[in-house]
Amino acid sequence: MKKYFFTPGPSQLFPTISKHIKNAVNYNISSISHRGQQFKQIFKNTVDSLKKLLNIPDTYYVFFLSSATEAMERIIENCVEKYSFHFVNGAFSKKFFEIASDLKKEPFEYEVDYGKGFNFNAIAIPKKIELICFTHNETSTGVALNVNDIYKFKKLYPNKLIAVDIVSSVPYVDLNYSLVDIIFFSVQKGFGLPAGLGVLIISPQALEKSKYLANKNLNIGSHHSFIELVNYAQKNQTPETPNVFAIYLLEKVINDMLKIGINNIRKNTDIKAKLLYKFLDNNDGFKPFVEKKSVRSKTVITSEVKIGSQEIIKKLIRKGFIVGNGYGIYKDKHIRIANFPAHTIQSVKGLITQLSI
Amino acid sequence: MKKYFFTPGPSQLFPTISKHIKNAVNYNISSISHRGQQFKQIFKNTVDSLKKLLNIPDTYYVFFLSSATEAMERIIENCVEKYSFHFVNGAFSKKFFEIASDLKKEPFEYEVDYGKGFNFNAIAIPKKIELICFTHNETSTGVALNVNDIYKFKKLYPNKLIAVDIVSSVPYVDLNYSLVDIIFFSVQKGFGLPAGLGVLIISPQALEKSKYLANKNLNIGSHHSFIELVNYAQKNQTPETPNVFAIYLLEKVINDMLKIGINNIRKNTDIKAKLLYKFLDNNDGFKPFVEKKSVRSKTVITSEVKIGSQEIIKKLIRKGFIVGNGYGIYKDKHIRIANFPAHTIQSVKGLITQLSI
């Protein structure tokens, strides 16, 4: 039986992935040297294509890390001497805060109930804050922020850095990269790749902060400090032997997406989200966890299940549809449905049919 | 034309890899949840098989990181308050030292000329040193240490921790893990996997050191501190979404190696190394870089090339044989030939034939 993975990451692989994996094996991609010309070309093509797809400014740097979690750590190490500020409304925004704390910084957190957005107008950022951290799309609860709210902070606080986690909203989110400084994601969600690669994008201003901390003789990490990452990125290389296989696959999937067109991908995502929310809003057995429609995620759709989620998850598995548990304390109460580019309208309709039986 | 990668990493893939990759795709390994039962079983099987293959004590912990370079960073973060000691005879032992320095520790280095071993009897380790770092097999130059020399340090300094880099000698090196504390490698060399996974093995004593530093409120990192890694490893999980694909492949290749038998793998490595050194020692165009036979690596064979290495590297490529450049300043002077389990005796003989023309 064909399986459809609607889990919010790892998730359904992009439809072309198995072809690209086959080619990677045939072309010996995993045996080439990470210091040779062939790899450098793969690195450059991947960065160039990503910048084209997401409309990232030329002056921004793109780094390859191992996970979004690592990205959080490297951001704190390289951009925070002491004070970061975190908008927390779920497990992943909380994790970003906790990582800052683990690294012996003194982070601030502004926390609201999980499943809620923020009343940003009511919040003033203390003067000493160096970095403001947003989780654009909370994978744990399915709350998505309005990007315009994020931009306002850059205008209000031009000397502070802005970091945005787009782990589960990329490539859907139409972000104006020039209005933020640090952006990161992993590839096993919206790009439909196997897990094991994180992507970190930084502005020249973020790099300057890293250099400032280094000049003060502070610990900004070793091989994955922004300074080391830039040194190698300028040669189209990484400091260590990277996950060449995944970088190759990412290049190929981005090029597939460029052919489809980012606008079509976004339009399709909207259509599928509308179908799912319409069903959940109108079916007595379900209730979208995020009540306020303006902050409902289009890419991770979370619903309460009246009879509890475990029974329906098991029932769906028998039909070949795999959806996510609720996160943490919501494990047995919620289902989470990923709505990524790899998910076709047809498979979403198939899922809805099964949910409604 | 079939290609034979004798580069010292990334290198030739293990012969069964393409079959395992195909299965990974067919079984949706890259879509399964890293918090689910299926992944936990893969994690457990991989750790159990690795312990069996390498004879690692039950009480030791096995962690999955992204690279050996990351392993160096995590070891310094978790085992060194201030003072580490590094035996340096090439680029990778040097890197370990530099990482300690980057992390604002005060590392000591004992450096000899590249291509040489150490006169260990002449070296006393200062009292304040917390961690002694050995690079068992210097990938940059092809020097291999005698493991008995390493064990002596544990006997002389039982309260210091001993770290051993076996990046390019695993699984060949027959190490008594119970006489050292921290061991690490990456999978794109002796295991013949695609790059993007590092493996770190630690003793209970190393974990204690990490806890001691944490209790002093020192920065031991965040998601990849030993404490976090152990918390998740005890649940057969990793703190972040890991490279599930690579962990799956590692399990499969280890099981293939268990079937072949580690003794056969080691015997074959010896046979191939003997063939290569015999040729290089007896051919006027070549001269093994490591003069002293007792410290010549069996797994990374480095040779000076009288007429320079670039011409012969190009000639070999035309015949389908890819060997490594010299490292760093030796780029145009040396060739480096990997001798890993993926390299058959027949392909080594084929390489020698081409070298001798």
Automatic annotation (TrEMBL), chains A, B:
Keyword Transferase: yes
A Pfam family reported for this protein in Swiss-Prot or TrEMBL: Aminotran_5
Residues of the signal peptide: none
GO BP term (any one): L-serine biosynthetic process
Catalysed conversion reaction: 4-(phosphooxy)-L-threonine + 2-oxoglutarate = (R)-3-hydroxy-2-oxo-4-phosphooxybutanoate + L-glutamate; O-phospho-L-serine + 2-oxoglutarate = 3-phosphooxypyruvate + L-glutamate
Cofactor: pyridoxal 5'-phosphate
Enzyme class: transferase
Domain Aminotransferase class V: 4-79, 125-320
Pathway listed: Amino-acid biosynthesis; L-serine biosynthesis; L-serine from 3-phospho-D-glycerate: step 2/3
Enzyme Commission no: 2.6.1.52
Homology family: Belongs to the class-V pyridoxal-phosphate-dependent aminotransferase family. SerC subfamily.
PANTHER family linked: ALANINE--GLYOXYLATE AMINOTRANSFERASE, AMINOTRANSFERASE CLASS V
Name used for this protein in its record: phosphoserine transaminase
Originating organism: Candidatus Roizmanbacteria bacterium CG11_big_fil_rev_8_21_14_0_20_35_14
